[in-house]
Structure formats: C-alpha cells, structure tokens
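Quick one:
INPUT:
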C-alpha cells in the first residue's frame, strides 16, 4: 500500500481480508481469489468525510491495486468533462450521467489477466440512441466521431482492435447515411446500429443484447421502438431523462453480468468488476448512485463492486444508509439492507483522521524529532495536511524547526506541476474555491453576529447575513465540524485561512482591520462572558496589557475553573511576527513570547501603580507561556513548558479554594503541550463546567501562526 495510506488497512488488508478485498473477491495487487463476504447482494460502499481525509487517495490506490486483475474504472464526478456538453453537442442529447457511463465503460473494456476485453452492446445501443437525438443539424464527421467513440470503448492495444476498428467504421458509415438521409433521423440511426451489431457478432450473447431493449416500457417487444422511446425520454429532460438514465445504468450492469455468465467466463474471471466513483455528491454521482440502489432494491441483481467517495456525511443523499466507522468494517461489515429503503443498500464508512503513530511514519525529520507530533497537533490527523507538510520538510529540511516556515515554503506536489506555498495548496483542496476570499475573512469570527460584522467591514456589500448563514451551512454539509464559538470550526482549516488573511496584504491591513472590527464588536456594554473575546482579538493584535490586567485582577475573585478557561481562551489568539509598542506588526520574524515567559524581560517591564507587582509579572509570564505552548505552528519548548508548570504551581499556593485545579493544570498543561495535545479545558479531565456563551472547548483557538 502507498506510504500515504497509513491507517486505512481496514479497507486493504489481505490477512485477514479488509472490506474491499472481501467485496471484490480478490487480493489487492494479486490475481488470487478471496471468499466473498456478500456472495448475493452486495453493498454500495461509500467512503465519507470532509475534504482532505484521503477519499480520493484511497480510490486511486484501489484502482492501482486491481488494475489488470479485474475490470476496474475510476471516475471523478467533479471533473470538467461532466459539467457541460462539448461545444458541438446539444444539451438535449447529453448529460453528466451518460458521459460518466461512457467513461466507465471505456475503462472496464480493457483486458485483464486471463480474460479478454468486455464488450457493451446494450450500453452502446442506448448511448447511440441518445446521441442520435442531437444529430439534427450535425455534419457527417461529427456523427462518425461520436459513434466510433461509443462503439470502440477504448479498444486500443487489444488483439481485436483492428477488427473492432473496421467494424466500428462500418457501423458509423451506416449511421451517418441513416442520419443524413430523408427518413426519420433517430429511428434510422438506431436501425443501422442494431443491424450492424447483429452483423458484427454472431454469438448468442450479443444477439441477446441486440434485442435487450424490447423490455423497455411501452416498447411492445420491439427493441428498435424501445430505443426510440429511450431517446425521446432523454431529450424530454426532467424525470423522463432520469428514467432513461436509469435504463442506461442498467444496460451497463447487464453487459457486465453477461460477461461473467457461463462456465468459461467464470473460470477465467476472478473476482468482481470494480467501479470507483469519486465526489459522488456532485455531477453524475447522485444519478448513478440512485439508479444502482433503486434497481437493487427492486430485485434487479448485479455483481459489480461499487466504492464511492462522498464529501460530508451524506445525511441528505443517503438517509437510510448503514453507517459504520472504519475500524468496524475491518473484519465484517455487518450490513443488512432494509427491503423497503433503497438507500439502505449503501454502506457508509467514515474515514477517520490519522493517528499520531501514523503521522510518525509519514513525517521524517531527524533534526527535528518533535516535528511529527507537532504536525499531528496542527493538522488534527488530516492526511492531506500531513502529506504536504512531510513533502515540505523533505524538500526544505532547513525549515523543519518551524511549522509556520513549512506552511509558507514552496512545494512541488507533482513533478510537472508548478511550485506553490504549502498553505495555498492545502486551501485549494480543503475549502470551496468559490468562497475562499469570504472564508479567509470570516475565519476570525466566532458566531453568526461576529461573522456579519466582519462581512460588513471587509466583504462586498452583496454578501449579507443570508450569505453568511448559507456559507456556514455549506461547511457543515461538506463534513467540517460544528463547534460553538467558531465560525470555521476545524482548527487546521481555520489556521490556514487566517495565515492567508495575514499574508494577503503586504502591510497586513486586512488582518488588523478584521481583529479591530471584532474588538469593537465585543464592546464593554456586552455581557461579561464576551470580555474574553475582546481580549482574544486584542492579543492577536499584540496588545498584551488588557489581557494581563484582566487575568491579574480576576485571579483573586473569579471562579478558578472559569479563570483557567479565560486564560486558555485568550491565549489561543493567533500570533504573527513580533509586535511593536503600538501593537503593529513589524518586518521581523522574531518571537518574543519565550523571552517574556522565561522572565528575561521582567526588568524592563513597568508595573502599573497600585497593583501587586509579583502577581502582575507572574500573570504576564504565564500568559505568554500558554500563548506560545498552545500555538500549533510552534514546536513545543521544554524550558517554557517547565516555566508554565512552575508559574501555575505558584499560583495554586495563592488560592487555597482553587488549589486542586491549579495544581492539576500545572501538571497537565505542560505535559499536553510537549505531547502535541491541547490543554485540558479546566485542569480536570477537560470538563470546565463553564456554560458561558461561545465556549469552544478544545477547538477554541481562532487561528495561529
């Protein structure tokens, strides 16, 4: 298995067999049979999850694992070829589903070990009938080109290619003559196609296929009439087209079933044919999925293994599907469909993030042993993020000591492709491209109201509250988590967006405007629980004084658990460069937080009049220590972790009532930082008991760098 597919053994394993080998009946990368888990009806496997969790990588690996051993096809429903018909093809005779079936059949037709190519006479006839509906004013060359592609189905390289090419040319000539003659265009083209199939193949199997459309509704037992009706329904659009597309999908599956029928084919062909459908939530995906599931629910059997990738959880598309975690299907899927629910024929398997051990195998940095754990903390196990950061560390070993430097390093993901900064490559794959600018701004928000404030300040006037809500709902549909207190709840994606916000303007003006807008939004007259939001954004601008004062003055009087939560929340502010006395970024990259946390700047710090100077400096050191150690773009500093332990321990001596919580935090928080984990919420197993509005739990950091 490819090195970037760690943690996916439940799908690929051989001994004992993983899910896909049990469904296909073949060992991956081998022409050796395995017992089928579902010898009768089999599930339509759908891999679910947000962007970047490796669905596309798994499907590509499955194609490589079975290519040449059993018929296999991979189609990405998000590709441009499924978005619109070719310039010369009328929309009435083209659809994403029809195009996908042609692409799938072209791949499935390729020869495999021990068996020749598969032909698709049923599907060919149907696709010609559909194409004929758009030949009203076509030239003969275009008709010939369309017909030959449908009939050849990627024959190049096979022993029969010469004969097939000549045969396809004859069929095309007949169809062109019929289509450009004086008779009815569609019926003439269909008649020529059926005649040519009958002449070209003498076997009983192909003769059966040529009359398969006799059973089309209202065909009256006549194959030609069935194809004419199919063509008409397709051109009609709407539900009529869906009906026709369903028959085209059934034709593909019937051709595959026929290829495996009889004693000799069963002896020559091991395993089942495999169809892989990426981004099944878009383009032709829903139509393909619905057609297969409905036919299986109605007893129209097939023996094709389908594995699809679906962005999000698929709650709307597959309400009745059986849901399993990946680990739960490693040995048996325990799948049983509901006869009355077509979508129950789908087995939805959620792909989890990678573990720290998986990350350790992917990220190698001998000079930065803490890097793998730091990468896992930043990415939260996102496979795409781990893989690209591993590439960056390999191509730029001098930057392996800083995740911020790795994210801004140029990486060439493909040998022939251009190099680009890692964070931009990740955003290109992890967020909707059509909303990248809006998300870059809204990533700093905590809820709908604060997002609207940012939109009013930094986005065009036509992007209003309704658009803000629609965008947040879209993120949820695509599988990103929903966490109270964060507009973009995935901490890794949020970090990348905020990094883009900071770097988008040379003078960082957009960055400052965003945080100044939120400081103004969380004004003094808002509820007390909102003070920490204001302090959070002031700290993001480099203004440490208000946070130190609030934590210092609140320490003797506030509930200890709530005080710890406020410290953690405020210190989760993003950090970009060092700041000057006015809170502005300057051009250097120096990080002064460690120096402050270790007390090296205490002598230069003026303590405000009338306050406890020892407590003031301790809170200042503590704030900077937590700010640095919880920053997922900075490798943990053991010296700062030790100082954090000391400062919390000393504070525990000053608050007898909160001694236990502070003492536990003094042990748990430094250990979590060094292990690449976020600190526990309140110092007591992550339960902080704080019900203030906007609590974001362990995912509250609004962005870091």
């Amino acid at each position: 298995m490819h090195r970037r597919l760690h943690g996916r053994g439940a799908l690929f394993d051989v001994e004992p067999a993983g899910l896909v080998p049990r469904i296909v009946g073949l060992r991956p990368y081998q022409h050796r049979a395995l017992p089928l888990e579902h010898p009768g009806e089999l599930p339509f496997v759908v891999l679910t999850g947000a962007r970047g969790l490796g669905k596309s990588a798994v499907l590509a690996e499955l194609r490589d694992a079975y290519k040449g051993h059993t018929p296999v096809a991979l189609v990405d429903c998000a590709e441009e070829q499924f978005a619109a018909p070719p310039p010369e093809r009328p929309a009435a005779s083209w659809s994403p589903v029809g195009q996908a079936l042609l692409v799938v059949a072209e791949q499935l037709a390729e020869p495999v070990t021990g068996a020749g190519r598969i032909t698709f006479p049923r599907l060919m006839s149907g696709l010609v009938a559909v194409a004929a509906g758009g030949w009203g004013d076509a030239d003969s060359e275009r008709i010939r080109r369309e017909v030959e592609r449908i009939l050849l189905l990627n024959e190049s390289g096979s022993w029969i290619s010469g004969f097939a090419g000549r045969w396809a040319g004859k069929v095309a000539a007949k169809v062109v003559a019929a289509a450009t003659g004086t008779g009815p265009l569609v019926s003439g083209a269909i008649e020529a196609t059926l005649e040519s199939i009958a002449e070209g193949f003498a076997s009983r199997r192909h003769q059966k296929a040529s009359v398969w459309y006799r059973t089309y509704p209202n065909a009256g037992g006549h194959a030609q009439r069935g194809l004419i009706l199919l063509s008409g329904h397709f051109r009609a659009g709407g539900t009529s087209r869906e009906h026709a597309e369903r028959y085209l999908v059934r034709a593909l599956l019937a051709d595959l079933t026929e290829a495996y029928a009889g004693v000799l084919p069963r002896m020559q062909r091991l395993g089942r044919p495999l169809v892989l459908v990426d981004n099944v939530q878009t383009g032709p995906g829903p139509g393909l999925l619905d057609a297969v599931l409905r036919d299986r629910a109605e007893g129209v059997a097939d023996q094709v293994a389908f594995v699809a990738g679906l962005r999000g959880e698929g709650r709307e598309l597959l309400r009745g599907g059986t849901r399993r975690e990946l680990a739960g299907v490693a040995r048996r899927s325990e799948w049983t469909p509901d006869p009355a629910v077509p979508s129950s024929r789908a087995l939805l398997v959620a792909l989890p993030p990678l573990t720290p051990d998986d990350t350790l195998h992917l990220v190698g940095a001998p000079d930065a042993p803490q890097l793998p754990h730091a990468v896992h903390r930043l990415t939260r196990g996102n496979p795409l993020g781990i893989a690209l950061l591993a590439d960056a560390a390999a191509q730029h070993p001098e930057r392996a000591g800083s995740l911020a430097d790795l994210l801004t390093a140029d990486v060439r993901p493909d040998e022939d492709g251009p190099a680009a900064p890692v964070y931009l490559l990740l955003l290109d794959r992890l967020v909707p491209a059509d909303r990248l600018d809006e998300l870059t701004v809204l990533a700093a928000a905590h809820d709908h109201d604060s997002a609207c404030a940012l939109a009013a300040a930094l986005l065009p006037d036509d992007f209003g509250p309704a658009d803000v809500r629609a965008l947040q709902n879209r993120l949820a549909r695509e599988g990103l988590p929903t966490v109270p207190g964060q507009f973009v709840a995935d901490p890794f994606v949020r970090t990348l967006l905020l990094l883009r916000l900071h770097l988008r303007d040379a003078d960082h003006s957009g960055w400052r405007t965003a945080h100044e807008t939120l400081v103004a939004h969380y004004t003094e007259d808002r509820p007390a629980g909102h003070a920490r939001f204001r302090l959070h954004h002031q700290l993001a601008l480099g203004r440490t004084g208000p946070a130190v004062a609030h934590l210092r003055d609140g320490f003797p009087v506030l509930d200890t658990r709530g005080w710890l939560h406020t410290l953690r929340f405020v210190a989760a502010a993003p950090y970009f460069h060092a700041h000057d006395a006015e809170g502005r970024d300057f051009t250097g990259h120096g990080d002064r937080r460690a120096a402050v946390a270790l007390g090296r700047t205490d002598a230069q710090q003026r303590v405000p009049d009338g306050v406890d100077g020892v407590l003031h400096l301790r809170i200042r050191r503590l704030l900077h220590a937590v700010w640095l150690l919880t920053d997922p773009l900075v490798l943990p500093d053991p010296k700062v972790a030790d100082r954090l332990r000391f400062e919390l321990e000393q504070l525990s001596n000053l608050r007898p009532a909160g001694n236990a919580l502070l003492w536990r935090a003094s042990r748990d928080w430094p250990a979590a930082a060094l292990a690449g984990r976020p600190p526990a919420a309140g110092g007591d197993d992550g339960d902080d008991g704080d019900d203030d509005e906007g609590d974001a739990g362990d995912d509250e950091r609004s962005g870091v760098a």
